[in-house]
Amino acid sequence: MEKIKVFDAFLVLKQGDITKEEVDAIVNAANPSLMGGGGVDGAIHRAGGPEILRECIKIAEEIGGRLPRGEAVATTAGKLKAKYVIHTAGPIWHGGDHNEPEILRKCYRNSLEKGLSLGLKSIAFPSISTGVYGYPVELASRVAIKAVVDFLKEKNGYEEVRFVLFDDRTYQAYVQAAEEIAKTK
Ligand code: ADP
């Protein structure tokens, strides 16, 4: 585990299963349909139970069937320890010149913004877009850490922003990115 003070908050990096985290909200790397899927999305719905999907279906109807990539919405966390799940759809990697970094940055910013509007003090992110969506983790980790550091510089309210990385390679990439970007703050 790594714990780094970033302005008024702690940035925590750990390896693990995000569905088990005790934080106010966990973020889901969803897809635009909000109907669930594989990877971390499937794990969250399995562990949290059907209440999460029920709220996702309702939200999808309200927003015309599709969550634009980079936007974020909140639902109950069902049976999970967290109070909320914040769902955001990351970019699919198409080589890097299709606005992928900007969309990924927006995923983190809008999720943090949503959490702040709900009065949350702690939030946990997975590595958005680096699974099925194919975003290279060395690049995605830098975008993710920079987006969080920039947000914490601008806005007070969070006590902790956590990254919960499933595998060792992903964890090491985020540690490296944090050493480059966050430790100088
Ligand atoms: P995307 O479609 O945004 O690429 P994926 O779920 O396929 O999302 O993968 C995103 C990351 O989440 C990957 O690094 C994957 O290993 C990781 N992941 C899968 N299950 C979990 C889990 N239970 N907790 C945390 N991270 C997970």
Major β-sheet strand ordering: 1-2-7-6-3-5-4
How many domain modules? 1
Radius of gyration: 15 Å
Q: CATH H-level name... which superfamily?
A: Leucine Aminopeptidase, subunit E, domain 1
The residue fraction in helices comes out at: 25-40%
What share of the residues does DSSP label as strand, in percent?
15-25%
Provide tags for this entry.
185 residues; Leucine Aminopeptidase, subunit E, domain 1; 7 strands; binds adenosine-5'-diphosphate
Which helices and strands, and how do they pair?
Layout: E1 2-6, E2 9-15, E3 25-30, H1 39-48, H2 50-62, E4 72-76, E5 84-89, H3 100-117, E6 122-125, H4 137-154, E7 160-165, H5 168-181
Parallel strand pairs: 2-7, 3-5, 3-6, 6-7
Antiparallel strand pairs: 1-2, 4-5
Helix pairs in contact: 3-4, 4-5
Summarize the structure.
By secondary structure, the protein is an alpha/beta fold. Strand 6 (122-125), helix 4 and strand 7 (160-165) form a beta-alpha-beta unit. A seven-stranded mixed sheet has the order 1-2-7-6-3-5-4, sandwiched between helices.
Question: Would you mind describing this structure in some detail?
Answer:
The protein is an alpha/beta fold and 185 residues long. The protein has a single domain (2-181), classed as Leucine Aminopeptidase, subunit E, domain 1, CATH 3.40.220. The protein has five helices and seven strands; from the N terminus they run E-E-E-H-H-E-E-H-E-H-E-H. The protein has helices spanning 39-48, 50-62, 100-117, 137-154, 168-181; strands at residues 2-6, 9-15, 25-30, 72-76, 84-89, 122-125, 160-165. A seven-stranded mixed beta sheet has the order 1-2-7-6-3-5-4, with helices on both faces. Strand 4 and strand 5 (84-89) form a beta hairpin. The protein is globular. The model has no long low-confidence stretch (mean pLDDT 97). Residues 17-19, 29, 39-41, 43, 90, 126-133, 164, 166-167, 170 line the site of adenosine-5'-diphosphate.
